Amino acid sequence: MTTLINTDLVLLDADLGTDTTSVIRHLAELVAKTGRAAEVEGLFADALAREQKTATGVPGGIAIPHCRSEAVLEPTLAMARLAPAVDFGAKDGPADIVFFIAAPAGADNAHLKLLSKLARSLIKKDFTAALRAAKTPAEIVALVDGALADKPQPAATATAAAPVGSGESSVGGPGVVGHRGAGGVPNAGEVGQTSAPKRLVAVTACPTGIAHTYMAADSLVLAAQEAGVDLQVETQGSGAVTPLDPAVIAAADAVIFAVDVDVRGKERFAGKPVVNAPVKRGIDEPAKMIQEALAAADDPHAHRVPHFGAEETAEHNAEVSSEHLGTKIKKVLLTGVSYMIPFVAGGGLLIALGFLLAGYSIALGTTADDILGNNTLLNLPDGNLALYLGAVAFKIGGLSMGFLVPALAGYIAFGIADRPGIAPGFTAGAVAVFMGAGFLGGLVGGILAGLAAYWIGSWKVPRWLRGLMPVVIIPLLGSIIASGAMLLFLGGPIAALTNGLNHWLTGMSGASAVVLGIILGLMMCFDLGGPVNKVAYAFAVAGLGAGTAVNQAPWQIMATVMAAGMVPPLAMALATVIDKKRFSLAERENGKAAWLLGASFITEGAIPFAAADPLRVIPSMMLGGAVTGAMTMAFHVTSQAPHGGIFVFFAIGSVGMFILSILVGTVIGGFSVVALKRWAVRKPVDTVAPQQLVAQNS
CB–CB of 415/331 below 8 Å? Predict the structure, then answer.
């Protein structure tokens, strides 16, 4: 315990600046100065990135900036009592007490438990009062050591206005915090009137899983105690998690999710009235959340956790009801694309392997079918094992690629209506293939199927019919509605549009093809694996199967998309080599991995760099990607594989120009980002010295 903090890590009544960035930088410098971090910049960048996700100010004038970082050498607490106080985003005003929690990226459970225990102590008024009254760093260290000591904490005392009861708090293991409420003991003036307390369960979780997770849990427990409510909380933090007892969940009247990440095992709470909120609200407004949960328990129309079992109804009370329409649409489409990609990647690589083994003639007419129909391993075609295995690979790949549009449509519908939408979506996608409507038809069919399944699932039906809804009624009616609309009304026009688009792209040559390459390159590098990137990629793979030796335009588009998508991670890896001091230790480590990620066509390898410095990284990557896209189209580079990067060289036409295009874009992107980091700095303001700003931005 004593190794987490010492007097060198305590600053009393210190002026660390007027904003969170300045305070976090000073504390990161303090941690590094004491030898507990390898370098300042990496720790500062990781802590600031965490702060930008969710403000770390909590009620009572407290702030707990924290992070896990590769730069941290050992778990550390740094504390500052600020003068003046600084706004860390708490509703009740600025913070004068700041605890900076720095954990190594691979911190063990024992240390994480100690760090979470400190976070829990910060919601106790007597502890924070003692911190404000301390006169020396040694007193602060003693207080923190006492908070971290493995001693049972006294139960919180109910206020005079709260119900009188046992008020007994309990800890049910590393992941479960519990409280048994008033037990029906009457308040003054209510003698003879007793009632059993409501029972609630809750889950708390934050991205880092160190501080907010546990502070929210304890705040909710204390609020439940004061309200006379029986509450059990499951903390899904970075350490070991002890799940709530199924019997406790079954007996609960409602559930609270105070989370910033997905709840693990959400299906355990299916059917329960639910209150959803960010984890910080569990700290800021725990009493309100308790009251909202109690109200939901008594409201038959309250939002409930969706059912996941086939025997239950297909209701889908959207937890993202407060999201903008654009955000919902993006999530749905990305769900379809993400589930589609494995079909395409595996199938495309198998087709490419078939070409490698059997030659391009395997794709002509029914060659592969004829070989497989008339031959076996014991009866090889002309004794040619490679030809036979090539036909096998080509056929399996072709069948896998055949799922492209149905999988896209099926999982778009899944994103809208959950599991009941899958069957209508796949059926609508198959109809889109039959109609020749292709990728666009899959999009439209999937959306129609999802909306139809969602609407049918919202019907109020007798209890005896509920079990049939997700397995019979919804697939039947959803398929009729979505597929019927595609066959009768929408499939033909969408097929005509798709054919027109394909003919236009096929006819592109010269300057127009180069322009298309620039556009695709920009799209691949704009959000580094996000929705714009996925649109460009899905557009390329959707047409891959239409490529032939005569019509190579779809293969050229695929090569352009793959080459441009390889540039960002490779360019950032190069940049970390060109000018190491411009990057934190964590970024330099990411740069080493980015070489392989880029070579494998995993554009997301550049995301850590873009997240830390988007205004300089993303424009540089777009410039490099645009040049690569233009070059691949100008040199007529082709790819018959939808993924794999340089490792599917055998499926690349003009592989030398493919590699050259990537190298040129990588060099341009890498040198551009270094140049921007050196010279594109923010203008200094009066409150900060110019040389300090240059250092921060470099």
Answer: yes
Q: Which helix (H) or strand (E) holds 255?
A: strand 254-259
Amino acid identity of 262?
D
Q: How far is CA 257 from CA 30, 117, 207, 275, 583, in A?
A: 36, 21, 14, 6, 37
Model pTM?
0.47
Distance, CA of 93 to CA of 261 (rounded, Å): 26
Note the pLDDT tens digit of each residue in 312-329: 333 444 444 445 566 667
Query: Radius of gyration of the chain from Cα atoms?
Result: 30
Return the H-helix or E-strand segment holding 83. strand 76-86
Confidence of residue 104 (pLDDT cuts 50, 70, 90): confident
Q: What is the pLDDT of residues 353-412, one digit of tens each?
A: 887 788 767 766 678 889 999 999 999 988 889 999 999 998 998 888 788 889 989 999
Whether residue 388 contacts residue 377, with contact meaning beta carbons closer than 8 Å, is answered with yes
Cis peptide upstream of residue 475 (ω within 30 degrees of 0): no
CA count, 13 A, side-chain hemisphere, 137: 13
pLDDT at 86 over 50: yes
Helix (H, G, I), strand (E, B) or coil at 122: coil
Helices (H), 298-403: 325-358, 367-374, 385-401
Question: Which residues belong to the active site?
Answer: 66, 206
The Cα–Cα gap between 270 and 308 comes to 7
**Contact between residue 526 and residue 533 where contact means Cβ atoms under 8 Å apart:** yes
- Report pLDDT digits (tens) over 640-663: 877 778 877 878 889 999 999 999
Domains of the chain: 7-148 (3.40.930.10), 168-184+195-297 (3.40.50.2300), 325-498 (no CATH), 511-679 (no CATH)
Would you say 27 and 80 are in contact if contact means Cβ atoms under 8 Å apart? yes
Residue 160 gets which letter from DSSP? Answer: T
The shares of helix, strand and coil residues in the chain, as percent rounded to the nearest 5, are 60, 10, 30
For all residues of the chain together, what is the average pLDDT? 79
What is the predicted pLDDT for the residue at 425?
95
57 forms beta bridges with 63
Residue 164: burial class (beta carbons within 10 Å; 0-12, 13-18, 19+):
middle
Tell me 272's DSSP state: S
Query: Residue-wise over 117-143: b if at least 16 C-beta within 10 A, else e?
Result: bbbbbbbbeebbebbeebeebebbbeb
